[in-house]
Request: fold
Amino acid sequence: MLIETDILVAGAGPAGLAAACVFGAAGHRVTLVDPAAPITGEDDPGADLRTTALLQPARDLLGQAGVWDRLAPHAAELWTMRIIDAAQTPPVSRDFQARDISDAPFGWNFPNWLLRREMLATLNDLSTVTPRFGTGVTGLLCRDTEARVTLSDGTRIAAQLVVACDGKASPLRALAGIGHRTVRYGQTALVFAVAHRVPHDNVSTEIHKTGGPFTLVPLPDRAGQHRSAIVWMDSHAEQARRAALEETAFTAEMNARAVDVLGPLTLISGRASWPITSVVAERLADRRLCLAAEAAHGMPPIGAQGLNTSLKDIAALRDLCRPGEIGSAAMTRAYARRRTPDILLRMTGIDLLNRMSIAQNSLAQRARGLGVAAFHDIPPVRRGLMRLGLGTV
Reply:
């Protein structure tokens, strides 16, 4: 049997779910496929314990798709981005304030499992979207008039456009013969949640020393506890050692690295780990196919650029999906032209920031501290960098 759809989205992570909601809310017939159903509970096996800060443009996009009203009650607002270089004596600390450029927060922080839950709930209310969880893409044949996709259960789908949101190891990218470049930093991120005595006051704090940043991102208070999510990046060897520590020893190392910015930290979740890599596709589009999200670009979790860059891909695709042009050669070329410069700019910037954070050389660390101060203390530079990070320029 051949099933017809306007857009087939492969991948049901946050980016793929968002894409299905955005395209479905715009009135397009959407089929969403993934070998596994989204995990939507914090305590479910395999739950994604990471958090994501959705920046202002992401809020606008998800608001238009009907997702934001579901997410908003669960948000932790991010009004200040604090950068501390703890390798300096005394430490260099600077605050970047959202009110310097806007009357809204920089962003709103959410656990990734919760993003999946609320996006899936929105998707289930859209009659235009058909989810097919438990199936993956095994075959792709792209013609001038349509794409023919074969799923792992034998189903065949004819789509005007195929959007690959299926991750850094994208099967669709491989089926299309599109190459990619991978950068391995020798780092692992440990991800977990903590409670603390001092309120975070909606400040996201990024502490640099060696090995990578240690970032505390606000979470909503719960049961009278002040809470934050932590992403701790360091070498594979160090993180493997820490992951194996019993809780008391791990908590001691965690508190030493946090330089007491929120008082004593108490671990309140499990610890998950993720290898840190960058991946960029050789091109973003092929006949009837567009790569988006981590199938097109994956980057270290610095500056909240990952999912927000992915949602800019989705916004560009939505704007280009006009009647009669969905999946056309002109449309896919326009998508690649529109997104490639921004993606490369953000990936280059995040790569540089990560390499600076890894640095152990004292001269490099000194230059990093001076750079943080200079970027902050020159008002036009500070405001320009904040607007660039938000994606509003």
The longest strand covers residues 180-196. The mean pLDDT is 92.
